[in-house]
Design a protein that fits this description.
Oligomer: heterodimer
Strand content of chain B: over 45%
Distance between the termini of chain A: 23 Å
Largest sheet of chain B: 4 strands, antiparallel
Structural class of chain A: mainly alpha
Number of strands of chain B: 28
Helix content of chain B: under 10%
Radius of gyration of chain A: 22 Å
Distance between the termini of chain B: 36 Å
Number of helices of chain B: 3
Shape of chain A: globular
Number of strands of chain A: 0
Largest sheet of chain A: none
Shape of chain B: globular
C-alpha cells in the first residue's frame, strides 16, 4: 500500500521536467480530450443549435411535426454520446439534469410541464433557466412532442406548449454553448486535461483516473437505463415507463450511442485511448475488453426496437437480459481489472462514506 | 511495472511543483520536522484497514493495520496517544501510541452497542465520550462514557444524546458542554441500511456531560441528516448535512449556529448546493483566518467560505475529497482517490499545492496534532 518514498525526487523531477510531454498519461489524457471528447461536445452544441432553430420553425408553422421530432432525436443521440464523457463542467452542479431528467419514477416531467404551461404561458429561456431542472431539458421537450395525451396537430394545444418548447430549445443551445466555451477557455477543461499540474489535477494520473471513473459511472448508468425498465430493481416486473427516452422510443438507440462513445474512450483515436496505456504484458486484458465490447455490440444489434415491445414478451426479455449481462461484463472489467492495471483507485468515500 | 513507472513520473512531476511551492515560503514544508502530524483512517488497495500517522510534509510516522475500518480520530490532551474510532457500525476502536503506532488497546463496544465513528476526550484527560447506537432500540442515541486508567480505557456508563442516530460529538469552547449531531436515522446492528427515511428526526443537541439536555434544534427539512460539526473558538457551530430526500430538491447542506442565535442554514449559493450532490463529509474551521471548509466527496468538490461574511473563498473540483483540517496558514485536505492538497488561505486567490502524502484511500476525516 504505502509506496516507498521516491528518493532523489528533486533530481528525478529535474530530469523529467525537460521531457514532460512524453508522460504517457498526459499524452493519453490530452488525446482523449482533444480527439474524442471535444468533437463529441461540438456535435452536441450543433445538435442543440439545430434544436433551437427547429422548435422555432415548427412553432411558426414553417416545418412539420416529423421534422421537429427528427431534430429532437438528433439532439437526444448527441446527448447519449456524451454520457461516458461527462467530465468537468457538465458533470458538476446539476447541469446534466438540466439536459435530461432521468430517472423519472413519478412522472415529474409530465406533471411539471403541465403546471408550467399554465403558470407561465409565455415562458422565456431565461425564466426557464430559473425553473425546476425537471422541465429545462430534453425530457420535457420529448414529452411535448411525443406524449400520447398531447395532440400538437390541434391549434390550441400547439399554442399552449409552443412557448415552452422554444424556450427549452433556446435554453439547451445556451447551456451547450456555455459548456463548450468553458472547455475551450484559457485554463479551461481542455487545458486541464492536457497540461499538468493545474488547478484541477495535481498530475496526469489524476486526470486518467477521472476519465476512467467517468467511464465506469457511465457504464453503470447504462446498466441502470436498461435494468430499470427490465424490472431488475422491481422484482422482475418490467417498468417500461421508467426507461430513458421511452416516449420517443429512443431508449435502445440512446444506449447504442452511449456504448459506442464509451468504446471510443477505451480504444481512442490512433490507439491513444485508455487501452494504449496498458503495457504489453497486459495484452490479454486488452483483448478481453475488446471482446466484451464486441459481444455487447453484437447483442445490441440483435435487438429489434422499440424497447417497450421487447419488454412485453418472454423472448424479448431474455434477449434484453443477455444484452444486460454483456454490458455488465464491460462494466466490471473497467471497474476491476482495468482500474487495477492502471493503478487507479475508484470511489472510496464517495460511494461508501459516512 | 509500467503503471508504477507512470505513477512515479507523475509523482516526480508533482514534486517539481512542490519544490517550487516550498521556495515560495510555505512554513510547514520549509521547517522539516516541525510539520503537524496528520492522523487518519486509511485503506490499502486490497481493502485492508490502517490507522495512520503522517507528517504533513509526507514523512510516515506509522501505519498500523487494524481489523475494522475507522472514521474519526481524537488525541489525548496530555498523553501521546489517540483513539481511532470505529466507523459505523463498527465494534472496535483502537488506542494508538502516536510515537510509533503501537496498538495499546482495542476497545470493544458493549453488547447491543456499536460505534458511530466519533468521540471526544475531556480536557482533564480522564473521560472519553463516544457516540453509540442502542441496537435493542435501533437508533436510540447514546454517548458511551469511558474512563482512562493510565493508558487504558475502561467503560464507565452511558448517557442519552436526546436524539436518533448520533454521529459527530464535539466540545463547545468551555470544554464542558457537548454538541451532538443527531443524524436522525435509525439503523440496526451490523447494518448501514436506513430504516426510517419517512420519519427521520435529525437534530443539533447541546448537553452537559452529565447528560442534561440544554437545547435541541432542527433545520427546516426533515430528511436533512445533521452529521458533522466544527466549532469555532467563539462558540460558533457549523454543521454539514447529508440529504436523504429526492435528488432534484435543494437542501441546506451547511448550517450554522452563532452564539446566542438559532441553528439555521449558512448562506450558500444555490449553484454550490447543487454541486454537493446532497452529501457533505468533513467540516473544519480556521480560527485565525475565520474560515470554514467543507468537503463534498460525491460532488467531488471542496469549498471554503468566510465564516463571518459568508463570502465564497474557494469552490474547486477535488475528486472524492475526504478529510479537512486547519494548519497554520490554511487547510489540508485528503482524498479517497487523488492526491492530498494544501490550500494557503492567506492569499486572495487560492491555489492547490499537492502534498507528498500517499494518494487516495483516505477516509472522510483527518485529525491534526
Amino acid at each position: 500500500m504505502f509506496r516507498p518514498k521516491l528518493l532523489f525526487t528533486g533530481l528525478a523531477a529535474l530530469a523529467l521536467g525537460a521531457c514532460a510531454p512524453s508522460d504517457p498519461q498526459a499524452v493519453t489524457s490530452a488525446a482523449i480530450a482533444k480527439q474524442v471528447i471535444l468533437p463529441t461536445y461540438s456535435r452536441w452544441v450543433n445538435a442543440d443549435r439545430q434544436l433551437a432553430v427547429s422548435a422555432l420553425a415548427y412553432c411558426q408553422g414553417k416545418s412539420d411535426l416529423d421534422t421537429a421530432r427528427a431534430d429532437f432525436l438528433h439532439a437526444q443521440k448527441a446527448w447519449a454520446e456524451l454520457q461516458p464523457l461527462l467530465i468537468g463542467p457538465l458533470a458538476e452542479g446539476n447541469r446534466s439534469w438540466q439536459v435530461q431528467f432521468w430517472p423519472d419514477k413519478k412522472n415529474l416531467v409530465g406533471r411539471q410541464v403541465e403546471q408550467l404551461v399554465t403558470a407561465q404561458p409565455q415562458i422565456t429561456a431565461e425564466a426557464l433557466a430559473k425553473s425546476s431542472v425537471v422541465v429545462q431539458g430534453l425530457s420535457a421537450y420529448e414529452y411535448i412532442l411525443f406524449d400520447a395525451n398531447i395532440d400538437m396537430a390541434a391549434a390550441d394545444q400547439k399554442a399552449l406548449y409552443c412557448p415552452l418548447l422554444t424556450a427549452i430549445g433556446e435554453r439547451q443551445k445556451n447551456l451547450a454553448e456555455e459548456i463548450l466555451n468553458s472547455w475551450n477557455s484559457t485554463d479551461g477543461m481542455l487545458a486541464q486535461l492536457s497540461k499538468f499540474p493545474n488547478q484541477r489535477y495535481a498530475d496526469s494520473h489524476e486526470a486518467i483516473a477521472e476519465l476512467l471513473r467517468v467511464q465506469v459511472t457511465a457504464l453503470d448508468t447504462l446498466k441502470k437505463k436498461l435494468g430499470t425498465p427490465l424490472g431488475r430493481q422491481s422484482k422482475g416486473v418490467p417498468q417500461p415507463f421508467q426507461a430513458d427516452a421511452w416516449r420517443s422510443k429512443a431508449s435502445l438507440s440512446s444506449l447504442q450511442a452511449s456504448l459506442a462513445s464509451a468504446e471510443t474512450v477505451w480504444s481512442g483515436v490512433d490507439n491513444k485511448g485508455l487501452r494504449g496505456l496498458l503495457p504489453a504484458e497486459q495484452k490479454p486484458l486488452a483483448d478481453k475488453i475488446d471482446a466484451a465490447y464486441a459481444e455487447s455490440r453484437k447483442q445490441l444489434a440483435a435487438l429489434k426496437p422499440p424497447l417497450v415491445e421487447l419488454l412485453a414478451t418472454e423472448q424479448g426479455r431474455q434477449q434484453l437480459n443477455a444484452f444486460y449481462d454483456s454490458l455488465n461484463v464491460v462494466h466490471r472489467l473497467h471497474e476491476g481489472e482495468l482500474a487495477k492495471a492502471l493503478g487507479i483507485q475508484l470511489g472510496f468515500n464517495a460511494n461508501d462514506g459516512d | 511495472m509500467v503503471t508504477d513507472m507512470l505513477r512515479r513520473q507523475a509523482l516526480a512531476l508533482g514534486s517539481l511543483v512542490l519544490s517550487a511551492c516550498t521556495l515560495g515560503g510555505w512554513t510547514l514544508l520549509r521547517k522539516k520536522g516541525e510539520s503537524p502530524l496528520l492522523l487518519s483512517a486509511r485503506d490499502d488497495s486490497d481493502g485492508r484497514h490502517y490507522a495512520v500517522g503522517y507528517r504533513v510534509d509526507g514523512t510516515r510516522v506509522f501505519a498500523t493495520q487494524v481489523a475494522q475500518r475507522c472514521h474519526d480520530i481524537i488525541d489525548h490532551p496530555t498523553l501521546s496517544i489517540a483513539l481511532f474510532v470505529a466507523r459505523r457500525p463498527g465494534t472496535e476502536s483502537y488506542l494508538i501510541d502516536l510515537r510509533d503506532g503501537r496498538l495499546l488497546q482495542t476497545i470493544t463496544s458493549r453488547p447491543n452497542r456499536h460505534f458511530y465513528g466519533h468521540a471526544v476526550i475531556h480536557k482533564s484527560g480522564e473521560w472519553l465520550y463516544a457516540t453509540e447506537n442502542d441496537t435493542t432500540d435501533p437508533g436510540r442515541g447514546l454517548l458511551g462514557v469511558y474512563r482512562f486508567n493510565g493508558e487504558r480505557l475502561e467503560h464507565s456508563g452511558e448517557i442519552p444524546t436526546h436524539g436518533i442516530g448520533p454521529h459527530q460529538v464535539s466540545w463547545m469552547p468551555d470544554g464542558e458542554t457537548l454538541a451532538v449531531a443527531n443524524g436522525g436515522i435509525r439503523t440496526e446492528a451490523e447494518s448501514r441500511v436506513e430504516m426510517n427515511l419517512d420519519a427521520m428526526e435529525p437534530s443539533l443537541v447541546l448537553m452537559q456531560r452529565d447528560g442534561t439536555l440544554l437545547s435541541k434544534e432542527t433545520l427546516s427539512q426533515q430528511m436533512n441528516s445533521v452529521r458533522h460539526m466544527a466549532i469555532a473558538r467563539d462558540g460558533t457551530i457549523v454543521a454539514g448535512q447529508q440529504f436523504m430526500g429526492p435528488s432534484h430538491e435543494s437542501a441546506e447542506l451547511l448550517a450554522i449556529k452563532r452564539p446566542g442565535q438559532p441553528f439555521q442554514a449558512f448562506p450558500v449559493a444555490e449553484q454550490q448546493l447543487q454541486a454537493m450532490a446532497h452529501y457533505t463529509a468533513s467540516v473544519a474551521i480556521h480560527n485565525e483566518l475565520r474560515l470554514v471548509a467543507l468537503t463534498a466527496p460525491r460532488g467531488n468538490r471542496f469549498f471554503i467560505w468566510d465564516l463571518d461574511s459568508g463570502a465564497v473563498k474557494l469552490d474547486a473540483p477535488l475528486p472524492d475529497c475526504a478529510g479537512v483540517g486547519a494548519v497554520a496558514d490554511g487547510f489540508v485536505v485528503t482524498s479517497g482517490q487523488g492526491r492530498c492538497r494544501f490550500y494557503d488561505c492567506r492569499q486572495n486567490t487560492l491555489a492547490p499545492q499537492p502534498l507528498e502524502l500517499p494518494a487516495g484511500l483516505w477516509d472522510n476525516h483527518l485529525h491534526l496534532v
